[in-house]
TrEMBL record:
The gene is Hsdl2. PANTHER family: HYDROXYSTEROID DEHYDROGENASE-LIKE PROTEIN 2. This is Hydroxysteroid dehydrogenase-like protein 2. GO terms for molecular function: oxidoreductase activity. Its main location: mitochondrion. Pfam families: adh_short, SCP2. It is found in: Mitochondrion; Peroxisome. InterPro entries: HSDL2 (IPR051935), NAD(P)-bd_dom_sf (IPR036291), SCP2_sterol-bd_dom (IPR003033), SCP2_sterol-bd_dom_sf (IPR036527), SDR_fam (IPR002347). Belongs to the short-chain dehydrogenases/reductases (SDR) family. Keywords: Mitochondrion, NADP, Oxidoreductase, Peroxisome.
Amino acid sequence: LAGCTLFITGASRGIGKAIALKAAKDGANIVIAAKTAEPHPTLPGTIYTAAEEIEAAGGKALPCIVNVREEEQIISAVEKAVKTFGGIDILVNNASAISLTGTLETATKKVNLMMDVNVRGTYLTSKACLPHLRKSKNPHILNLSPPMNLNPMWFKNHCAYTISKYGMSMCVLGMAEEFRGEVAVNALWPKTAIHTAAMDMLGGAGIEKQCRKTDILADAAYCILTKPISFTGNFVIDEVLLREEGVKDFDVYAIAPGHPLIPDFFLDVEIDITAVKQKEYALKEEKTESPPTKPSGPVAETFRVIQGAMTEENVRSTQGVFQFELSGDGGGTWYIDLKNKGGSTGFGKPPGTADVVMSMTSADFVKMFTGKLKPTMAFMSGKLRIKGNMALAMKLEKLLTQLNSKL
């Protein structure tokens, strides 16, 4: 990629910056199109610190303040890039917004943010770069978006987010065909969760052990961007591509080698969605929606132990009421009150309003509370559905690590 100019959105940190640094080692020119110009209170890096790292790695950097929601800022940065480097060879649409909330829990401003950044931002940045890309010798657009998996499980828990990410994937589908022979357009998605600032916010402390480094996506992106333009219209999974390229050791990408990894969103772990009709999913849902009314067995025992293990510190540090809708043996409605007095658990609805409602099978609930199933893993694989205060839901994982020894 020596001498190539890459326009990368959201390149001040995380995956975008990792792709930039990989290209910089070849001596590429990197346009850092991101909105963080001033240091963020909780997130690392600005467009200027990223520029320093890119230059140190051997590339040339052009930091541009770009909020992809603002078309004028996109157009201005594209013009600046062309004026500085003489053209644009590669566009990486990496900037993305996420809110893993249900339809009724997603504020309109969050819906607008995800649609504006993920779909509209990707579309408009591609539109602004395409006239310049068409003049390049080996032009590429790469969107960080998933294959379109129509398993309803990926829609039911966070419909707006899924629509917005699939919108990015539809840009790949349409533009790859529209510009076939002129510009290669592909999508890249990780097989497992990647450790970024966003993942820290979603999963809380300790989540990094279940993730891979951003390097795996940088290496996969490099493979794609160095292919001829005939390689187009592909929805690439990082590990699958790298295995095809001859990579055998994936431990080098792990934060904690040997530790179980969380599969990423939109990828079915056990079911090949192409071979399963939606009717079968509907039947599966029906089978799990007949909870018995009387508490008994492992679930009741788990709640009894939780009650005995509760401390005033747990209540003080959590300040939340959790309601569980469990299907299967010993299921029904249960609650854990970690807000009032010394805390309590019980069968039925909580005394006050629940801050978080979690739905799952009884078997998975017991696994989760005995350390055999991580809440984040359960959520991302669709085994756990969460409604309500997501920040409080994330506190649960921290609490479980304290209680596991007693459970």
